[in-house]
């Protein structure tokens, strides 16, 4: 199906009744379930996925929704400057400037199939442009919009897992 390595899925990760919640410094906090996301404009793109661990998965085909489309529906307040993207494992989170996450995508499919849990399904954040593989948050279940920069622990956690 793909060239991504497979990792064990933490016990805390479950796809039962999954929804993506966007909250914090927004006018309309909201939860998006799979049907909500499927109803949004989506696109498909092919891209290689490089990791700091030294491997590359070539020519992956992702179907996704733009994070900007989600943010438009929750209406970040004028003070909003940052986003903290949380994984449902309860441990992993990655912070982004709001302007950067607006260009990111939330991947829902890989190679024409629902995104497998071992690769971050049901939804995986994929930042566009230059970035590091540890910014690609698996098992996304919430995004907190903030006015102040949140602590970013993702790099240390990610690098600790590959060393």
Automatic annotation (TrEMBL):
- Ranges where the Oxidoreductase molybdopterin-binding domain occurs: 8-150
Read off the InterPro entries from this record. OxRdtase_Mopterin-bd_dom, OxRdtase_Mopterin-bd_sf
Signal peptide coordinates: none
The source's superkingdom equals Archaea
Q: What is this protein called?
A: DMSO/TMAO reductase YedYZ molybdopterin-dependent catalytic subunit
> Which organism is this entry from?
Halolamina salifodinae
- Name the lineage: Archaea, Methanobacteriati, Methanobacteriota, Stenosarchaea group, Halobacteria
